[in-house]
Amino acid sequence: MITRFGLGFHQTAIAFVGNFGSAGFSAIALILISRMLGPELFGEFSAAFAIAVILSKINDAGLSVALQKFVGGAKTHAEANQYMSEALRLRLIISASILLVILPFTTTLTRILQFDHPYLVLISIVIGLSIAYYDVLLIFLQATLSFTSAAVANLSQAVLKVLMAVGAYFIFPKALGVIYSLYIGAVLLPVLFSKSLLPSWVHLNIWKKDVKKQKDILSLAKHSAILIVASVVIDNIGVLFVKGYLTSFEAGLLGGASRISLLFILIGASLAQVLYPRIAKYRLKSDLDKYLKKAVIILLLAVVAFFSTIAFSDLAIYYTIGPEYLAGSSVLVVLLASAYIYMATVPFSALFFSFKEPYYFSIAGILQVIVTIGGNMLFVPVYGLMAAAWTQLAGKLLMFGFTLVYSWYAYKKHIGNE
């Protein structure tokens, strides 16, 4: 008989293997791409990719957090189907709205961000929205505890990226537009096979509106949307400021360092994918107390892991994205600190899927946006590339401190109401 702890460990292991394997293959693809393009062209690639990722999270609008809570806590398959159908319907409406609003401004964005390849912004807007529906598929799989299928989806698109990068290396190594389109479009592969990946009981109907389920989703999404957008802004807006204020070469250094740190961020993401839907079911003080002890252990492991890896930052750059990027070594150290702080924050932020404290998501998001955009705007033009990395670290530290304080307050309030 599998215990609750054993099941949680098994699911965490599957999510970790899927995410880390996916990150590994994606990293190989990006290593090939960064070496093919060099720092300057890779700066254009990184800035364009940042636009695509930010738009995909705006498209999310907090729906993923709401799904993990409500689908994870659903009592029947029928109820889970209703929540997923309503969320998908809302996502399609948001996608159409983004295209209508953003497409007329592609030329303006290209000019502000000083792109030498103007078509990259258009590709980011149109093909980049595919990332949003890949994210939808993963959220559906995680919320229904289909972690093996989520791992398969993750790995399949990452392997495809490697195959495309290898092909590009031999056929068109400097064709930035083609390489970029193939890279961001690779996530469509698992989306095309979503019916096979999802549990057989999942039957979505976007044409039937459920007012109550929509109200439930929007009640949380309106708060979590700010946090979701803020999280992706804090991780990606720096490269856009560097691209706009500095040079494509410096944007390439930041983009390259960010890709390496992403491997460590995905460890935190693996934890989040398992913890969020599971913690949504926790109500008893005894369960929460046991969980908090594990959260503290994860925090301590993150601290030890950071000091164990920073000594290898130069080697990590040299043997991955290449010696041309070694000038970004100090940037990588700061970004690794950000990644480990995020990893330490995840177990405590997961508590809010159990507690009824939706304002945590909106307040945390607003604080991060203020720090990130304000810091980049004020300091990147004056202090250059490192200012973007330090601003990202400041946002993660603020999020960590706020999460610890608010989670302790919410925990005391929760057990006081028992």
Total helical elements? 17
Amount of beta strand = under 5%
| CA distance, first residue to last residue | 30 Å
Poorly predicted spans: 1-7
Instruction: Give me the secondary-structure category.
Output: mainly alpha
Write down the overall mean pLDDT: 81
Which radius of gyration do the C-alpha atoms yield? Answer: 21 Å
H-E string: HHHHHHHHHHHHHHHHH
Number of strand segments? 0
**How much helicity do the residues have?**
over 70%
Can you characterise this structure?
By secondary structure, the chain is mainly α. It has helices at 4-60, 63-70, 77-102, 106-112, 119-126, 130-143, 147-171, 176-185, 188-192, 194-197, 211-245, 248-279, 285-309, 313-319, 329-349, 359-383, 385-416. The longest helix has 57 residues, at 4-60. It is globular and about 55 Å long. The relative contact order is 0.14. Mean pLDDT is 81; it is low at 1-7.
List its salient traits.
single chain, 418 residues, mainly alpha, 17 helices, 0% strand, globular, disordered N terminus
In short:
The protein contains 17 helices and no strands. By secondary structure, the chain is mainly alpha-helical.
Give the secondary structure arrangement, pairings included.
Blueprint (H helix, E strand, L loop, with lengths): L3 H57 L2 H8 L6 H26 L3 H7 L6 H8 L3 H14 L3 H25 L4 H10 L2 H5 L1 H4 L13 H35 L2 H32 L5 H25 L3 H7 L9 H21 L9 H25 L1 H32 L2
Helix pairs in contact: 1-5, 1-6, 1-7, 1-8, 1-11, 1-12, 2-3, 2-6, 2-11, 4-5, 5-8, 6-7, 7-8, 11-12, 11-16, 11-17, 12-15, 13-15, 15-17, 16-17
